[in-house]
Amino acid sequence: MPEGIYCNKKPITTEEDLKALLSDTRGTKYYQEMMELEVDREKLWATIQKTCKSRTQTWLDVCARCGLCADSCFLYLVNDRDPKQVPSYKIQSTLGEMVRRKGDVDNAFMRHAMEVAWSQCTCCNRCAMYCPHGIDMGVMMGYTRGLLYSQGFVPWELKIGAGMHRVYRAQMDVTTEDWTETCVWMEEEQQDDWPGLEIPIDKENADIMYTCNAREPKHYPEDLAEAAILFHIAGENWTVPSEGWEQTSLSMFAGDWEACKLQVENVYAAIERLKPKRVIGTECGHAHRATVIEGPYWAGRADGQPPAPYIHYVQWVAEALRTGKLKIDPTKRIKQKVTYQDSCNYIRNWGLADTAREILSYLVEPGYLVEMTPNREHNYCCGGGGGFNGIGKFRPQRNKALLTKRDQILATGASLVIAPCHNCWDAIRDLEEEYHIHIDWSFLKPLLIKMVIVPEHLKPKEEDDEE
């Protein structure tokens, strides 16, 4: 069967097709059809010839199979040092084989490659730090995902996620109306406690345009409210766009590069329309990677930069604390053992380790921060990055992958993990539910609101008692 009703090579482009795929509970029919999906070998080889550039070819050729990347991979470590989990083996046995066979691979090979690409690698890029040749297996595995997606071999949830971006320009079915109504609702909810607080929509020439993760308006609208409260306290001139507010990219996890381009262009169009001085993204690692690191290249921007300076939320928090826009009540600083989860995408891949520690110096009482081992850019992936968290088919592998982070946290003795990244936050939540190690976990925003000194003029006026 060359093409299935649910599992096929066509991207999701309509709401009707999206709902049809969603109706296939847990992707049961989708994966049944995948068993029979034919590989278009000529197209696969043509795609490789067109897109496998000199860097990737050189990496495949220069890899000495020395195995020095092995211990860098938490999935290798947590799977009893299985040689098949060595990063170089994983890439050579998938992408390397596709290239060597000139695309002449069958269905069984592609299904195996799909399992490797999405359940044996989170594209965390840690292996690149330890390769003597500087080979980045994570980058190559991301490229491999794109080849697999083009042939229809992609996990059900990520086919849906990429379709969401194509249909809604968001990773979830949050329409423009849904988004703006949520902004108005959260603004109204805060008025009693924060008189004068606003969530300005489509304000031109603001100092800040704020973008977020679609999970926030969909499931955690209080996160948007917390961002608004902190901007309010800091006295920021800010706005959110009515369209182009969603900065995440499940398309990137899926390997749907065309949808990645559509998504980031939507954000960039909002920047060009509203002309903010700069843009601040929410507490999300892959969202930063998608809009700031990879996004300019997907959008074909010659300078490799977004249309305006674009920073991660931790950069704004550090700046606000440093300049006194936000001031912390020293009596409310954290006085319990706490550790920090370094997100792969804004710590290892964007260099914000020092910025994160600067924030901790304000929030945590001296002596209570206990670093994980290893930490900073050497820290391990949370265990659920790269889309791993959301794939039901590979949940047993994901749960096992959480063991590395579990053991790191337990070794610190910390009872609180600060995790300013959605995937990290989710993985640590699931880790607690799976292994019951008795920890709490938090984004930065709720911690800041508990500790920040509120200027008198922003506090609600007490009404005179009436006799």
TrEMBL record:
Instruction: Supply the Pfam families for this chain.
Output: CCG, Fer4_8
- Quote the PROSITE patterns the UniProt record gives: 4FE4S_FER_1 (PS00198), 4FE4S_FER_2 (PS51379)
Q: Which InterPro entries match?
A: 4Fe4S_Fe-S-bd, 4Fe4S_Fe_S_CS, Cys_rich_dom, Helical_ferredxn, HmcF
Has UniProt tagged this entry with the keyword Repeat? no
Question: Which superkingdom?
Answer: Bacteria
> Mind listing the UniProt keywords for this protein, alphabetically?
4Fe-4S, Electron transport, Iron, Iron-sulfur, Metal-binding, Transport
Can you provide one Gene Ontology molecular function annotated for this UniProt record? metal ion binding
- Enumerate the spans annotated as 4Fe-4S ferredoxin-type domain: 112-140
Q: Which PANTHER family match?
A: FUMARATE REDUCTASE IRON-SULFUR SUBUNIT, HETERODISULFIDE REDUCTASE
Name under which the protein is recorded: 4Fe-4S ferredoxin-type domain-containing protein
